[in-house]
């Protein structure tokens, strides 16, 4: 016969099981701060390009620098801010890809070189 194993619904006198919590939980404020900062960063760099080609290369550079900052934040800082950076950078690069694809389809020529 198996010993009685309580379901946990009623206290059994045993010490509670340990709970493991994230030492630095990701919060919504951190994600929002990273997202807003990265949006400003990408727009600032995107405005440096005078044409589609310039916009694409400046946005790719800004996104790469943002990703380096996000990787440093994941290791040493706030992971929520890093998540906001990653999300907005991915969105910015998606916009760049859509702009290049649209120009490529409409002109029939690859626009980046």
Describe the secondary structure blueprint for this structure:
Layout: H1 28-46, H2 52-76, H3 79-107
Helix pairs in contact: 1-2, 1-3, 2-3
Strand content is under 5%
Radius of gyration: 24 Å
Task: Give the class from helix and strand content and strand pairing.
Answer: mainly alpha
What is the residue-mean pLDDT, rounded to a whole number? 90
- In helices, the fraction of residues equals 55-70%
- Main beta sheet, described? none
Coarse morphology: elongated
Outline the low-pLDDT stretches.
none
Helix/strand order: HHH
What is the number of beta strands? 0
Oligomer: single chain
Distance N to C terminus: 77 Å
Give the count of helical stretches. 3
Protein name: DUF4190 domain-containing protein
Keywords: Membrane, Transmembrane, Transmembrane helix
């Amino acid at each position: 016969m198996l010993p009685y194993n309580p379901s946990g619904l009623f206290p059994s006198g045993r010490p509670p099981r340990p709970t493991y919590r994230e030492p630095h939980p990701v919060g919504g404020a951190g994600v929002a701060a990273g997202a807003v900062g990265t949006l400003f960063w990408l727009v600032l760099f995107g405005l440096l390009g005078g044409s589609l080609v310039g916009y694409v290369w400046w946005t790719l550079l800004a996104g790469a620098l943002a990703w380096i900052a996000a990787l440093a934040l994941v290791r040493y800082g706030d992971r929520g801010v890093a998540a906001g950076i990653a999300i907005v950078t991915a969105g910015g690069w998606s916009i760049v890809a859509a702009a290049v694809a649209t120009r490529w389809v409409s002109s029939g020529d690859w626009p980046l070189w």
